[in-house]
Amino acid sequence: MALCVRGIDKHLNCPDVCRARGPKFCEKAVYSIKICGTITPTELARYSPEKEPDNATRLSDAFKKWHAAIPMSTRFPLDFFEQFVANKTLHKNAYEAQLQAAQIPFCLCQQSFKYDLVLKACVEDAGESACGAGNPCMNGGECTKPDPSKPTKLKAVANPLFECKCPPAFAGALCENEVNPCLKDDGIKFCAPFRCARAPENLYKGFR
Hints:
By secondary structure, this protein is α+β, with helices and mostly antiparallel strands. The protein is 23% helix and 15% strand. The longest helix has 14 residues.
């Protein structure tokens, strides 16, 4: 811990709750991408050592309040921090070490899932899909969750939250482009010997 507080190879010498769990921590986590991440409890994100005065001689009430909110199982003794009060850099490093030790490890979830702190598992998140907040698709397109095994229409988005299933007379990522089904073999084949006409109101064929 001394090397961590001195700022020497922090990635090796400071607390790491994911590293402490080992490489198999997320191996059997359902709906996860098998990678460990960390969550900082909300109550521990309200304090910043940057607000402490440079000439401090004792721990502030704000720090003590923050320290008291840390679970006993991961809380460093208060006198551990008292020895670094006069040196703001060391105090900040000690604070960061404590914050890292108090983080909650979890398994990063797959797209359309979120981590539930109570269940300690990835659960389906209806709000994670853009379809849960309305229909972003145009011209009668149906908003669906994307199939990760298929290429996406939204080429500019690495992990799109929705996909549009377009009527036959429209195309595009949002069904924003008009297309003429009559130009395809289906339109000609079904209408022959009569003339094929584009019919966007026909959500099944797109022509008449």
